[in-house]
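User: My notes are a mess, but here's the protein and S-adenosylmethionine's SMILES. Can you give me a structure?
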Amino acid sequence: MCGGRVAGLASPRVDGVRAVVPPESAGLDGVVSMGWLWLNGWVRIDIGAFAGMKRICEPELMDDPLQARVYSEADFSIDDAAFTAEVLALRAETASSALEEKILDLGCGPGNISFRLAAALPAVPLLGLDGAAAMVELAERRRQASPERWPRLTFARARLPLPAGGLRDLPAAFAPPYSLLVSNSFLHHLHDPAVLWRAVARWGAPGALVMVRDLRRPESPEALREQVERHAGNAPAVLRRDYAASLAAAFRPEEVEAQLAAAGLEDLRVSPRDDRYLDVSGRLPA
Ligand SMILES: C[S@@+](CC[C@H](N)C(=O)[O-])C[C@H]1O[C@@H](n2cnc3c(N)ncnc32)[C@H](O)[C@@H]1O
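Assistant: No problem, the inputs look usable. Here's the predicted complex:
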């Protein structure tokens, strides 16, 4: 599924990229130069060998407590507000009174999107799912700090894919099926992307609204380098390195279209968004 593997890459935030580097990793040397990605000054990866055509996976879970904390403290507010506003607008435009409203946030991390949606739709049950204990703990801590603000919000630790019957133990209010499934910056973490689409197909109610946003992999090594320069040109080397790694782990729109076709989700539409994201949105068949 992946073109290769870069183990243990820390993941800092770079201009919209969901990535955080724990401080003790900040000393790592990572430089994108002349078609090569240099790690620690001695691991040399040919960007041309992986970024242009193949992908390289990042570690799936963000389960290092420090990494999770740094991520939760990073400021993603502009992107998160934009994503949430677009989800809410899509929901309003395509409202379906036939569906019992229930929301699932897949790969919710510390709940950045979950809390925003729950604030906008306090009466709608919302389940945030993440496989990293450290992330779910942070989300739960924030929820429990003012439970009265989040009467219908809950989080659960669950690493996808779940065995048959997974989520069955949840209180009925939060159990599948869901009328709205969202996921932000999650797809590129999955070593097997079919895991996300199977979850959508399995837990989405007929007619459910789906909105997934992720990075998209640049078309060529030159485009990758150019994008790293444009969005992280002034960032420390480690940030540029990890931005390159996240972009290399992401998918091309045509790959996502093939994933959707394989999962029987052709009703969802893939659209590039500005110069670095892709959106997958639409309704499941009613
Ligand atoms: C970059 S974060 C995105 C968090 C959140 N969606 C946001 O918008 O900030 C990706 C999250 O996906 C989670 N994750 C990765 N692979 C997973 C899997 N197989 N099952 C469940 N969660 C997973 C990671 O633990 C991490 O919290």
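Residues 4-55+218-249 form one domain.
User: Great, I'll file this with my notes.
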